[in-house]
Design a protein that fits this description.
The structure holds two protein chains of two kinds.
Chain A lengths: L20 E2 L6 H5 L10 E7 L5 H4 L12 H4 L8 E5 L1 E2 L31 H9 L8 E5 L23 H9 L4 H30 L3 H29 L19 H17 L5 E6 L8 E3 L2 E2 L4 H5 L5 H26 L1 E3 L2 E2 H4 E6 L15 E4 L8 E3 L6 E2 H11 L21
Parallel strand pairs in A: 1-9, 2-6, 2-11, 3-13, 4-14, 5-6
Antiparallel strand pairs in A: 3-12, 7-8, 9-10, 11-12
Chain B lengths: L6 H4 L3 H6 L14 H7 L2 H5 L6 H18 L25 H15 L13 H26 L5 E2 L2 H12 L30 H18 L10 E6 L12 H4 E5 L2 E2 L8 H7 L6 E4 L20 E15 L3 E4 L4 E8 L11 E9 L4 E9 L4 E6 L6 E4 L5 E4 L8 E13 L9 H7 L11 H16 L6 H16 L4 H13 L2 H4 E2 L8 H12 L6 H8 L6 H13 L3 H12 L22 H20 L12 E4 L1 H6 L11 E4 L13 H6 L8 H11 L25 H10 L1 H16 L12 E4 L4 E6 L5 E9 L4 E2 L5 E2 L2 H9 L2 H17 L8 H11 L6 H9 L2 H4 L6
Antiparallel strand pairs in B: 1-15, 2-14, 3-4, 3-5, 5-14, 6-7, 6-10, 6-14, 8-9, 8-11, 12-13, 16-17, 18-20, 19-20, 21-22
Helix pairs in contact in B: 3-5, 5-7, 6-7, 9-15, 13-14, 13-15, 14-15, 17-18, 20-21, 24-26, 25-26, 28-30, 29-30
């Protein structure tokens, strides 16, 4: 049977097991902004979606509850069995239309294939809005091989796409590269000036608005809202600018740009997420793994796939395609395991960083071969939940995935009773 | 459909999803008539707020409902409704835009005779016409009323190309490069001009603010005189960064008297200096610029961004055995590539600059102007020559092999000297861009009365920058901003720039609006210029707007013709073809070199194919060709490389020129151009499904229908299907696939004679079965592929016409030009207005087509027809 020991020749961006790291005291913005003290240990979340999903029969386990039997893919995570929950029978009601659902994984907005569709706020932005800018970045939006123009997990309240960053080195520099005093002064001046420019523009736009028709006004509202949001963030941006950036715990990685090295790029991006958490640069991260833009890619040293990722996903059960896809998916689970190992090996005030960090891995497709948007593969690790079970919801009458999001929001400390199409919290998932 | 990726069509499923339901159990006929009332109960609601005419609409719907009941409900009702279309639940409140669009689809399928399915045959022509006219009448009325009430489409944000062009024109900085500071724009309806996808977000706003700042800083100068242009001259060994390049001496050497001379790498300083002044020494180069390579002149670096003039002496040569040079028979095309001098690994993408020069066999001096950024150099880029590649013998270190020489020797270029002068100073100082900001104020000086001068400059800049005059209230806001900054103690220039930044990020600058009022000449001018030149109106067009002439038919026509004839129309060609024909993805998939070794590293071919299609589309419009040029023409554009690719008489030189096609050529028309065939293949294989769906969508204007939501799909099992024909056969055998695939597979089948780059083939290539073909490719690599099954390009169109091959198909498609013309109008409409053709636009579209029918739906006529229509001009139209 399948076994896909992750490649030993990987670059090792993600620290392996057995390496322990203790985080220094993470100074949060509460002290910077002089706000009230927050809970000693912050929660974090990393939300990952591979827009082509996984082959269902290799992912979903047999048996339910705590005594379920690991599936081939989940065996990759066997060491963390007690640290994750696998769910079946979840989906977003009304979110159909094959690939078009990819932009709704974290928004649950219905009918993405319909004409006139507008997206709505995504889970990460919702949480960031509630939590405020307590870290240097309210959230990070990452991607691997992503079509930045058209795909994202992260959406604003009025349905505008927030572009993902797909360059790991750029992410690293944003987090860690400190400008010289002159540059900092210039940037502070720029932010101060921006405040007055935005004031003027908002005044002008509001007046303009009065003379517009209904549809035009909607567009202008979006513009106005965007300006308001920039302005609201200026104060925190100035505070953060005047505070030095953290010292990077590691050297700047060598960049991987070639889309063919898709697995390397994923590993690199996961390690950026890890670094962001370790340095408390942000607490909310999204990561879309974009298979649609991944052509023929390197599966193993000296072995390229015969088809692009999308072509493989429409395997039609052809054996040579299934084999390659399975290998690629299995290796992704291996990378996920390495991430969990790194998070488990990092201590924050004596506790595992993994216990403070929810790692969601899922997809908008239940089965890419058929463009099915139901029975999504969903796995949640860490973050202080009582894990270790297979939560099986009815395959023919799925429970809303948004219920899981509500549970996660509450775990983040966000007082939200509902999100998207939720009907409550997710049954069977309880905090410790 | 939001999914714009053509790969989606590659799936065997997209259509299966829809079809999955078609084979479902039929619902028993003849439900109780109460159901009709289900529709009717909603009708009174429709009347609310609709006012005049609503009575007759309600009557039409009352007449329509029983017909719908009789002919459609049998299949389209309840949870098992076909295509997941439960008409009982589909409200007829067509005031709602989304509902209306669904009813438009119903209307269209009835109109086309697709629904009810022909085999049911119980809907007579008369009844069908009645259903179409009743439903169509209501849809038209309601859609028209909505357009009259709120307009055809809302404000549209400029995309990043347009924003960059606008800034370039306003600031008179023709090479300003801020595009990549802005997020890539979302695509909608295939274009980057779609109103509904050009959203605004805080990241977008921040990016505009930052881009405007960079642009303004670039426009402002600080010194009292321009930076003096530096000169650089390279001779002898200074012409190249090293004494050799990858591919060994076959790829490059230094020569004297037509014979290679030995040039040692490690020599004394004196010797090095001597040979760097040796005017007799020639640099002879025989390879193309591609990894690994770093062929730039030694020690040259652009200090600052700007234009650099390059002059050099060169001649085209051939290398024959013994590293000897003989004169070439043909000119050799070359260009330069700007890049960082970073060794063989390239940091930052090299980009061609300075245009293509054809180097003649007789030695001559060439001159061109390069656009370089600070810290860049430029490398020699000979086009169409081999690229030696790393060759690891038995896992050892890489060696670089050069391919065997062609008959008569290996073409190349020999250089004798090269001079660079730059950055070229502006024609005046301070440059025009600075004057846009500060008028005649001397550089670096504060004015005597800062407040008054600030007021004057802000108004002056606002009048210059904006496409439509600002109101007095707006001007006061910008003025107030600048005065406020001055009060805070900001330096004068910085305070004024803050005001300019606000103007360049203001709503009227960032958004385009549709013309509404009869006197909306500025909106017409902006729509027209962004359509035809991708930027703001030029001086002449702006003057026509000020004079209020843009609702005159004759002015619209003459302005349209003027812009089409102008140089800036190239921007339309570029951007329109980038999106309509996906040309921006020309380099997405490299040809699979195992199967197509002749295409290895052939950037020159790919570049030429791209230019060919752009040139052809430009000609379609400028020379007003009939719409059938989409599928057939008796000429094409070619240069030396394309002549070989298309099997034409040999041509000399890189310049594209119009070539009449010989009798029997399968080429001619967009349909069979290499660029089209490349963007519809994945580099390894071609799929009739992908190509068929793409051609139907982009060229013929009948896209495959999007899959309806919430339908479980049939999981296709393609095990055992070996050839593409067998696979396609599965589509037609399975009723659930056939419904859609029979519409687009056949067109793709006709294109099977064209390989992944549009080369003609009669057999497929493979790696296993068939006769083996061996050789050494243009990079020096051995290859072996097999000639496998013969290509069969015969098929039958959905409506029944059979064809034997591409020749037949072209004839069939060209015989029916109206749909081709209609498709062009649809594409132009979406591109020009940001909103696709609405239901209420249809009569207008047909009227334009009627007017153009006589000439065979000529492309420029169609475009000008659109300019004069209410679709483009808004309800006030033109006189």
């Amino acid at each position: 049977m399948l076994s896909c020991v992750a490649r030993s020749d990987r670059r090792g961006f993600l620290r392996g097991a057995g390496v322990l790291l203790a985080l220094p005291w993470l100074e949060s913005l509460s002290s910077v902004l002089g706000q009230s003290a927050e809970p000693a240990l912050p929660r974090r979340m990393l939300l990952i979606s591979n827009n082509l999903g996984v082959i269902p029969r290799f992912f979903f386990p047999t048996g339910t509850g705590r005594d379920y039997e690991l599936s081939p893919y989940l065996r990759e995570l066997e060491a963390f069995r007690g640290d994750f929950t696998v769910c079946s029978g979840l989906s977003h009601p009304g979110v159909t239309g094959g690939h078009s659902a990819e932009n709704c994984f974290l928004t649950a907005a219905k009918g993405p294939a319909r004409s006139g569709f507008r997206n709505q706020i995504s889970l990460d932005q919702f949480a960031a809005e509630k939590l405020g800018q307590v870290t240097r970045f309210a959230s990070l939006n990452l991607g691997v091989n992503i079509d930045r123009a058209n795909r994202s997990l992260s959406w604003t309240r009025d349905g505008a796409l927030l572009p993902a960053e797909d360059n790991a080195v750029a992410v690293f520099r944003r987090m860690f590269v400190q400008g010289n005093p002159e540059e900092v002064a210039r940037q502070l001046h720029r932010l101060e000036e921006r405040g007055s420019i935005l004031d003027a523009l908002m005044e002008q736009t509001r007046r303009l608005n009065r003379s517009l028709g209904a549809e035009d006004r909607v567009r202008m509202e979006q513009y106005l809202t965007s300006m308001r949001e920039v302005e609201q963030r200026l104060h925190a941006a100035r505070e953060w600018e005047s505070k030095g950036r953290p010292t990077p715990p590691e050297k700047e990685p060598r960049d991987v740009r070639d889309k063919r090295f898709f697995l390397e790029k994923l590993e690199l991006m996961l390690s950026m997420a890890r670094l962001a958490f370790e340095t408390d640069s942000t607490r909310i991260i999204t990561l879309m793994v974009d298979g649609l833009t991944t052509g023929v890619f390197q599966l193993r040293e000296n072995q390229n796939t015969t088809d692009g990722y999308h072509g493989l996903s429409h395997h039609g059960q052809a054996e040579h395609k299934v084999r390659q896809l399975q290998d690629a998916e299995c290796q992704q689970m291996g990378l996920l395991r390495k991430l969990l190992e790194a998070l488990a090996g990092t201590r924050e005030q004596g506790r595992r960083l993994l216990d403070q960090t929810m790692v969601l891995y899922g997809s908008n497709l239940g089965d890419a071969n058929t463009h099915d948007n139901t029975n999504l593969p969903i796995l949640l690790a860490g973050g202080g939940f009582r894990h270790g079970a297979h939560l099986a919801f009815p395959r023919d009458a799925n429970a809303p995935l948004s219920n899981l999001f509500v549970s996660m929001l509450q775990q983040m400390g966000v007082e939200a009773e509902s999100f998207g199409s939720s009907t409550g919290r997710l049954n069977g998932l309880e905090p410790i | 459909m939001l999914c714009a990726d053509i790969e989606c069509c590659m799936t065997f499923l997209q259509s299966c999803v829809e079809a999955g339901v078609l084979s479902r159990r039929r619902v028993k006929r003849g439900r109780a008539a109460w159901a009709v009332l289900g529709c009717l109960v909603s009708i009174p609601l429709m009347a609310q707020g609709r006012g005049e005419g609503s009575q007759s609409q309600d009557a039409a719907l009352r007449a329509f409902a029983p017909l719908l009941e009789e002919h459609c409900m049998e299949c389209h009702e309840g949870s098992k409704a076909k295509g997941a279309l439960d008409l009982r639940k589909l409200s007829l409140q067509v005031e709602d835009r989304a509902l209306r669009e669904r009813w438009v689809r119903v209307h269209d399928r009835i109109q086309k005779g697709e629904m009810p399915p022909p085999k049911k045959g119980d809907l007579g022509e008369e009844e069908r016409a009645r259903m179409v006219s009743l439903l169509g009448g209501v849809l038209l009325h309601v859609d028209r009323a909505e357009v009259a009430r709120v307009g055809r489409g809302p404000l549209r944000r400029l995309n990043r190309e347009e924003y960059q062009h606008n800034l370039r024109e306003v600031l008179q900085l023709p090479h300003l490069d801020i595009r990549d500071m802005l997020p890539e724009d979302r695509e909608g309806h295939h274009f980057n001009k779609s109103t509904e996808t050009l959203d605004m977000s805080r990241e977008q706003v921040t990016a505009y603010l930052e881009a405007a700042e960079v642009a303004l800083r670039a426009a402002m100068v600080s010194g009292n005189a321009p930076l003096k242009a530096a000169t650089y001259r390279a001779v002898g060994t200074d012409l190249f960064p090293s004494v050799g390049t990858f591919g060994n001496r076959q790829a490059m050497f230094f020569a004297k008297g037509d014979q290679a001379v030995k040039v040692e790498a490690k020599v004394s300083k004196e010797e090095e200096a001597r040979r760097a002044q040796d005017e007799e020494l020639e640099l002879a180069l025989f390879r193309s610029a591609s990894w690994p390579y770093f062929g730039y002149p030694k020690r040259f670096l652009a200090r600052v961004e700007g234009e650099y003039r390059v002059r050099f002496w060169a001649r085209a040569v051939r290398q024959v055995d013994g590293f000897k040079l003989v004169p070439a028979d043909l000119p050799q095309p070359m260009t330069f590539r700007a890049r960082k001098p970073s060794g063989p690994c390239i940091a930052g993408d090299p980009r061609a600059t300075g245009g293509i020069l054809d180097i003649a066999p007789e030695g001559a001096v060439y001159e061109t102007t390069l656009q370089l950024k600070a810290g860049e150099t430029f490398e020699y880029s000979l086009l169409g020559l081999p690229v030696p590649l790393a060759f690891n013998v038995k896992g050892g270190p890489p060696t670089y092999r050069f391919p065997p020489f062609p008959e008569g020797g290996q073409p190349g270029v020999a250089f004798r000297w090269l001079e660079v002068e730059g950055p070229l100073p502006p024609v005046q100082w301070p440059p025009a861009s600075h004057r846009v900001l500060f008028d005649a104020l001397p550089v670096g000086e504060e004015p005597a009365d800062p407040q008054a001068e600030a007021r004057r400059l802000v108004r002056r800049f606002a009048a210059h920058a904006v496409r439509e005059p600002f109101s007095e209230a707006d001007l006061r806001v910008f003025e107030g901003l600048v005065l406020g900054r001055l009060e805070k103690g900001e330096p004068f220039a910085s305070a004024v720039l803050a005001g300019y930044k606000a103007i360049l990020c203001s709503g009227p600058f960032l958004y385009l609006r549709e013309p509404k009022r009869p006197d909306d000449h500025f909106a017409i001018a902006s729509r027209m210029s962004h359509f035809l030149t991708n930027t703001r109106p030029d001086e002449v067009l702006a003057a026509r707007a000020r004079e209020g002439l843009l609702r005159d038919r004759s002015v619209l026509r003459s302005e349209g013709e003027r812009l089409i004839a102008g140089e800036s129309f190239e921007r339309f060609i570029q951007n329109f073809t980038d999106y309509w024909l996906n040309l921006r993805q020309m380099r997405r998939d490299d040809p699979d070199v195992r199967l197509y070794p002749e295409y290895r590293f052939d950037d020159y071919l790919v570049e030429s194919l791209e230019q060919e299609t752009r040139a052809f589309v430009g000609t379609m419009i400028r020379e007003n060709l009939p719409a059938t040029a989409l599928v057939a023409s008796d000429f094409l554009y070619a240069n030396d490389r394309l002549a070989r690719h298309y099997g034409l008489e040999p041509l000399v030189g890189s310049r594209l020129r119009k070539v009449s096609l010989p009798e029997g050529s399968p080429y001619g028309g967009l349909l069979t151009q290499g660029a089209i065939l490349k963007v519809t293949s994945n580099g390894t294989t071609t799929s009739p499904v992908v190509r068929g769906a793409w051609v139907m969508d982009r060229l013929l204007g009948t896209p495959p229908p999007p899959p309806p939501p919430s339908v479980p799909a049939v999981e296709p099992d393609i095990r055992g299907a070996k050839t593409i024909r067998e696979l396609l056969a599965l589509h037609t055998r399975d009723e659930s696939c056939a419904g859609c695939h029979q519409r687009f597979d056949p067109v793709g089948v006709a294109l099977e004679n064209f390989d992944v780059l549009g080369g003609w083939r009669e057999r497929y290539r493979g790696l296993e079965e068939g006769q083996t073909v061996k050789g050494i490719d243009r990079a020096g690599h051995e290859y072996a592929y097999t000639m496998s099954a013969p290509v069969d390009s015969s098929a039958r169109l959905a409506e029944g016409t059979a064809f034997a091959n591409i020749y037949d198909l072209k004839r069939i498609l060209a015989a029916n030009p109206r749909p081709l013309g209609r498709n062009l109008l649809h594409q132009f409409t979406t591109y020009a207005t940001g909103t696709p053709v609405r239901f209420s636009d249809r009569p207008e579209v047909e009227a334009i087509l009627d007017a153009c029918a006589d000439g065979g739906y000529r492309v420029r006529d169609l475009l000008l027809g659109l300019l004069e229509s209410r679709i483009f001009l808004g309800d006030a139209g033109c006189r």
